[in-house]
Structures are given as structure tokens and as C-alpha cells.
Amino acid sequence: DPLQIPAYNALMKIYRQKKAYKKEFKIINSAIKAYEKYYNDNSGKHSKQVKMISEKLNKSFGLVDKKGTKLYNTEPIGKWESRKEIVNKKLAK
Predict the structure, then answer these.
(1) What DSSP letter does each residue of 45-79 carry, written as one string?
(2) pTM (predicted TM-score)
(3) Can you list the pairs that 7-14 forms with residues at least 24 positions away whose Cβ atoms lie under 8 Å?
(4) SS3 at position 70
(5) 64 forms bridges with which residues in the sheet?
(6) CA-to-CA distance for 16 and 92, rounded, in angstroms?
(7) pLDDT in tens, 38-67
(8) Which of 3, 24, 26, 49 could be stapled to 15 by a disulfide with Cβ–Cβ 3.0 to 4.6 Å?
(9) What does residue 6 show for φ and ψ, rounded to 5 degrees?
């Protein structure tokens, strides 16, 4: 199952402890990609009416801009994006 948050977090922690930042970076990217695919799934599982209502709710709550672009990352993606920036800085040293 590619959507196991505890598994991703455990791998990230192990690589962080071993200072294997390239491997941690790769796992973070894999996790983010899996969750973005899940959240952006347009395979027709949901009706058009459900999608329309979701879009309206997102706009009314201020989660997207006028064009429908997300303003905030859904968890756990937000947390992983923050960690990705930290790891990227460590790799740049």
C-alpha cells in the first residue's frame, strides 16, 4: 500500500539517523508523489456533482485561490515538504 504514513515516516527517520540524506530525500519525494496522486485522482470514482461541491467548499474555506490552485498542502504532504527543504539544504552543504 503506497499510502502508509507510518512506513514513510519510519524510513525517513532511519535515513535521518544514519545521515543518509540522499535516501531520505528520495523517500520524501516518493511519499509526496504517492499522496499527490491519491488526492488528485481524477479517475472518475467521484461524480461530477461531488467534485463541484468539493471545489466550492475549498474556495469558501480559502483553501484554493480563484483559479483553483491549492494554497495549503494537505497533511502529511505539508510536513514532508518542510522536511524536504531541510534535507535539501543539508545536501547542498
Answers:
(1) -S-HHHHHHHHHHHHHTTSB-TT--BSSPPTTHHH
(2) 0.72
(3) 8/76, 8/80, 9/76, 12/83
(4) strand
(5) 70
(6) 15
(7) 877 655 566 778 778 878 888 888 888 888
(8) 24
(9) -60, -35
